Amino acid sequence: MASLWNEEAECLSGDALDALHLAKLKKMLVRVNEMSPHYREKFERAGVNPYEFSSFEHYRRYPTFDKYEERESQARSKAELGHPLGRHITCDIGDVNRMSASSGTSGTPSFQGHTKNDRRIQNENFARMFKRIGVEPGDRVLFAGVMSMWVAGLPSVDGLLDYGANVIPVGALVGSMKVAEMAALTRPQVVMSTPSFLRHMVKSARQEETFDLADIGVEKLIVYGEPGGSVPEIIDELSQGYGGAAVYDAMGGTSCMNPIFVSCEAHDGMHFIAPDHAYVEIRDLQSGEYLPIEGELEGEAIYTGLDRECGPLIRFCDGDKVRITTDACSCGRPGWRMKVIGRTDDMLLVKGVNVFPSAIQDIAVHQQNALTGNIRILKFAESPTIEPPLQLWAECVGAPSDADKATIKAKFEEEIQRALRFKVEATLFSEGKMEMEFGATNKAKTFKKMYE
Predict the structure, then answer these.
(1) What does the pLDDT look like over 259-299, one tens digit per residue?
(2) Which of 25-39, 92-106, 175-189, 371-385 has the lowest mean pLDDT?
(3) N or C: where does the chain have the smaller number of CB atoms within 10 Å of the terminal CB?
(4) Contact 97/115 with Cβ under 8 angstroms?
(5) What secondary structure, in 3-state letters, does the chain show?
(6) Domains of the chain with CATH codes
(7) What are phi and psi of 267, to 5 degrees?
(8) How far is the CA of 268 from the CAs of 30, 323, 324, 325, 362, in angstroms?
(9) How many Cβ atoms are within 10 Å of 451's Cβ, its own excluded?
(10) Does the predicted TM-score (pTM) go above 0.70?
(11) Over the chain, what is the mean pLDDT?
(12) Residue 399: left (phi > 0), alpha (psi -120 to 50), or beta?
């Protein structure tokens, strides 16, 4: 089996893990009830008593949390208490020594505070991830994510420093070409960023024709923040663009002191690496029932960080629709595996069919040597309901002729009709000509807003 950072914790399972989860959940529920007026009022309304908690069935009676409740709690604490961390904070405000924020792409950013112990646990999870994928202390790691307050920004740099990496903190806000130039100068063994930004770096370097990122010696790419890191075609493209580098996809769960998932060489889902620090539930989207994590299953992921001191989110609905498998992985590492199918808040309803944008992107990336996989879905109203044909943009590989574009367009539209059962009207652009937009965290935007 591959080397692990904390074998005892990462291999926990069965009765021992159940006992640990129940003990930690009990301790957390009592603590938040006693320290947070938000939770105390919430539990009273739900008719649950933390002092009587004794089973996972009891836990499912506790109300869930979501981003809207989080923002409301934080708005109230800003007005009433003079800080933006929320009425659900469960530590002394003076014990908070780092604040991070969400991207705020769907509204006001939400904030996360970290105590010294929160940061310690987060750094432990980073160490588990780095050890699993073969990053060693002293390795040169170029961090090309957005630094500033993003939850995956400075916390990642903090994790790298604590692990002992030789960190090259360039940050993505200087632009893809500047980051590519710094990579060529510093020759990192590892690069961390979003998959869309890493793809853009390769294209920028090729357009400048001054150097090739395939020649600078990158051995590993750690990607996060978008589903591309688990798409075989994008994995291949990234690997080739960086000279055969191994690609690893990392992910967290809100409030869980991320990362808590990372992929392996088998690329058959991301391993759960923090069973002692996070409790994950899976809820069936149709029936609302909670599914045991065994065999293969699909549903919405609900996360609870078990050890968070500042602002724990009890049963947070993160909006991830996931597919889970628990059979042994060929890599030999422990931990059940997860693939993200889509975001429940991005889901569209087209001709009665629930559609995740990632499903359309999957079809695009499978049009090998024809489409790059970059798409933009045009939205003409705020409602998720769209009357077909759904209008979208797609980027071609290279600059095909008008006749070739017509052929690619017809094949792409036919494949969507066959696989997803609704019509689209695709507008194709030559490579580099389609308008791309990136959010505050350098994630590529899927939707093009066509209304005010």
Answers:
(1) 999 999 999 999 999 999 999 999 998 898 999 999 999 99
(2) 92-106
(3) C
(4) yes
(5) CCCCCCHHHHCCCHHHHHHHHHHHHHHHHHHHHHHCHHHHHHHHHHCCCHHHCCCHHHHCCCCCECHHHHHHHHHHHHHHCCCCCCCCCCCCHHHEEEEEECCCCCCCCCEEEEEHHHHHHHHHHHHHHHHHCCCCCCCEEEECCCCCCECCCHHHHHHHHHHCCEEEECCHHHCHHHHHHHHHHHCCCEEEECHHHHHHHHHHHHHHCCCCHHHCCCCEEEECCCHHHHCHHHHHHHHHHCCCCEEEEEECCCCCCCCCEEECCCCCCEEECCCCCEEEEEECCCCCCEECCCCEEEEEEEEEECCCCCCCCCCEEEEEEEEEECCCCCCCCCCCEEEEEEEHHHCEEECCEEECHHHHHHHHHCCCCCEEEEEEEEECCCCCEECCCEEEEEEECCCCCHHHHHHHHHHHHHHHHHHHCCCEEEEEECCCCCCCCECCCCCECCEEECCC
(6) 1-343 (3.40.50.12780), 347-449 (3.30.300.30)
(7) 50, 45
(8) 38, 11, 10, 9, 16
(9) 8
(10) yes
(11) 91
(12) beta
- The number of residues making up the chain comes to 452
At 6, which amino acid appears?
Answer: N
Q: Which residue reads 């001709």 in tokens?
A: 351
